[in-house]
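Retry 2 of 3 after timeout on previous attempt. Resubmitting C-alpha cells to design endpoint.
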C-alpha cells in the first residue's frame, strides 16, 4: 500500500509538471532536455560507482597475453570450505539479550566456525573468549572490523594452535596436576592459564638478607592488567599483561592454583638417571632443590676462583649467598650431577626470568671436559621446550669457550651479543606463528644485550 501510494503521488507530480511545462511555447523541448539530463546523470553515477568501488578493478590484459587462471579461492563456490587457521579472540559485548547472537551471526556470515566459547562476566558487560577456525584468506583487520560492527569492543586476537583445542576445564585440571607434582611448575602453569603474560617472583627477603617489603594479602590483588598473589614460599608473585585486562574469572583460577601450591608445600620430583661417562665413571643426574644447599656449598669450595668467576660474573666470595635463591623451585629448575659416592660435582639451572628463560652451568674443575656440561645443557633445553619456552639464553664471558661449545652443540639457531666482555647467547627453540597486530608491551630491543648477572636478577 505504501509503494502504491508513492507511485500515485509520483504520477500526480509528474502529470502536474508536464501540464505546467507542456503548455508553454517551448514546453516539449524542455521535457526532452530534462530527460536527456537525467539519463546522463544516471550513466555518470553508474560509471563513478564502479570506478571507486572497494573491489580492485581487474588487471588490464595486454595484447597477445592470456588471462591468468583463477586461483582455488576464486574458483571455489561460496560456502565451500578452504584452507583455515586457528585464532583466539576475546571481545567485550553488552550484557543484553541478543548481543552474543548478533556477534555469532556476523562470524557465520564470514565463514568462521566457533570451536569453543568461554564467557567472563563483568560488572558491566561480558568478555567472550572464542577459539575460531577462520578462512586463511580473511585478514585479522577485517575480522576485527566485523566484530566491532556487531557490537564487540576491546577486541584482541592471537594465532592459536592445536593445543588450544582442549576445553577450559580439562586444561585447568591438567595445569593443577602439573603444579601438584612439581613446585617449579606454578609460574609456568600461570603463564599457560593466562596466556601471554610476564610473571615475576619477588622474595620477601633478598639474598643479601634485607627485607624487600614485598607482600600481598592472602586473597590477592587484581588491578586491571596486574595481578598480585601471595607466594607460598614468601614474597609476591606478580603477573602482568599490559595489552589485556584480567577478568575476575581468570583471577579466581590463578588464585586457586596458588592455594593448591600452598597446601601441598615444597615438593620436587625425585627421578634419577644413571649415565656412564666415556672413561667408564658412572654419574647420576637428578632434580635438585634447597635440601642440596650444603652439598652445593661444598662443591663451591672445591672449584677454582676462575671457574666460579666464569659462572657468577661477580665477586667469588659472594657465590655461596645466592645458592638458596638458585636452588628454589619458585625461580626455576635445577639439575644436579653426583658421583657414585654421592658427591655433588655439577649444577645446571633453568631460571624463569620474567617472560624469558636463562640457562646456567657450573661443573667442578676436576670433572670438566668430560661431556657433563653438554649433557646438562641438553636436558635443560629439553625441559624448556616441554615448558613451552620459545627460546633460552646464557650469559657468560667471551673467554668461556666451554659454554660456547656446549651451546653450539645444541644444533639450534643461535644469536650472539657481546659488550665489554659479556657474551649473551640466545637459542631459538621453535618458530612461533605470526600473530595479529595487537597492543602490547614493546619487546626488548635486539641491540641491547641482556647483561644482568645472576646477582642482579636475585637482587631484583
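Retry 2 succeeded. Sequence:
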Amino acid at each position: 500500500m505504501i509503494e502504491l501510494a508513492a507511485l500515485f503521488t509520483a504520477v500526480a507530480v509528474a502529470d502536474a509538471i508536464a501540464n505546467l511545462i507542456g503548455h508553454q511555447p517551448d514546453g516539449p523541448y524542455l521535457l526532452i532536455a530534462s530527460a536527456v539530463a537525467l539519463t546522463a546523470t544516471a550513466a555518470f553515477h553508474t560509471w563513478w560507482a564502479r570506478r571507486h568501488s572497494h573491489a580492485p578493478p581487474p588487471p588490464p590484459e595486454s595484447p597477445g597475453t592470456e588471462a591468468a587462471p583463477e586461483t582455488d579461492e576464486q574458483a571455489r563456490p561460496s560456502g565451500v570450505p578452504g584452507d583455515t587457521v586457528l585464532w583466539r579472540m576475546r571481545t567485550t559485548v553488552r550484557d543484553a539479550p541478543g548481543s552474543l547472537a548478533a556477534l555469532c551471526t556476523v562470524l557465520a556470515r564470514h565463514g568462521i566456525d566457533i570451536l569453543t566459547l568461554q564467557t567472563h562476566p563483568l560488572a558491566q558487560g561480558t568478555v567472550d573468549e572464542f577459539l575460531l577456525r577462520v578462512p586463511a584468506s580473511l585478514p585479522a583487520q577485517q575480522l576485527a572490523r566485523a566484530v566491532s560492527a556487531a557490537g564487540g569492543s576491546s577486541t584482541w586476537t592471537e594465532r592459536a594452535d592445536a593445543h588450544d583445542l582442549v576445553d577450559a576445564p580439562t586444561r585447568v585440571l591438567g595445569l593443577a596436576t602439573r603444579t601438584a607434582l612439581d613446585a617449579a611448575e606454578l609460574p609456568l602453569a600461570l603463564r599457560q592459564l593466562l596466556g601471554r603474560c610476564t610473571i615475576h617472583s619477588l622474595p620477601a627477603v633478598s639474598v643479601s638478607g634485607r627485607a624487600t617489603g614485598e607482600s600481598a594479602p592472602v586473597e590477592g590483588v587484581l588491578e586491571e592488567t596486574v595481578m598480585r598473589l601471595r607466594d607460598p614460599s614468601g614474597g609476591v608473585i606478580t603477573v602482568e599483561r599490559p595489552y589485556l585486562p584480567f577478568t575476575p574469572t581468570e583471577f579466581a583460577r590463578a588464585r586457586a592454583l596458588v592455594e593448591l601450591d600452598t597446601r601441598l608445600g615444597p615438593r620436587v620430583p625425585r627421578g634419577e638417571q644413571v649415565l656412564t661417562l666415556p672413561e667408564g665413571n658412572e654419574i647420576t643426574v637428578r632434580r635438585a632443590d634447597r635440601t642440596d644447599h650444603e652439598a652445593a656449598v661444598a662443591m663451591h669450595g672445591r672449584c677454582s676462583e676462575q671457574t666460579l668467576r666464569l659462572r657468577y660474573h661477580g665477586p667469588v666470595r659472594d657465590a655461596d649467598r645466592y645458592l638458596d635463591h638458585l636452588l628454589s623451585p619458585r625461580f626455576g629448575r635445577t639439575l644436579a650431577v653426583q658421583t657414585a659416592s654421592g658427591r655433588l660435582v655439577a649444577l645446571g639451572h633453568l631460571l624463569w626470568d620474567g617472560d624469558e628463560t636463562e640457562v646456567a652451568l657450573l661443573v667442578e674443575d676436576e670433572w670438566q671436559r668430560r661431556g657433563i656440561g653438554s649433557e646438562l645443557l641438553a636436558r635443560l633445553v629439553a625441559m624448556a621446550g616441554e615448558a613451552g619456552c620459545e627460546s633460552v639464553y646464557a650469559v657468560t664471558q667471551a673467554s668461556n669457550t666451554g659454554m660456547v661449545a656446549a651451546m653450539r652443540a645444541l644444533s639450534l639457531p643461535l644469536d650472539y651479543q657481546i659488550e665489554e666482555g659479556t657474551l649473551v647467547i640466545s637459542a631459538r627453540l621453535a618458530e612461533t606463528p605470526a600473530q595479529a597486530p595487537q597492543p602490547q608491551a614493546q619487546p626488548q630491543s635486539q641491540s641491547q644485550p641482556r647483561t644482568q648477572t645472576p646477582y642482579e636478577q636475585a637482587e631484583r
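Attempt log closed. Residues 168-264 form one domain.
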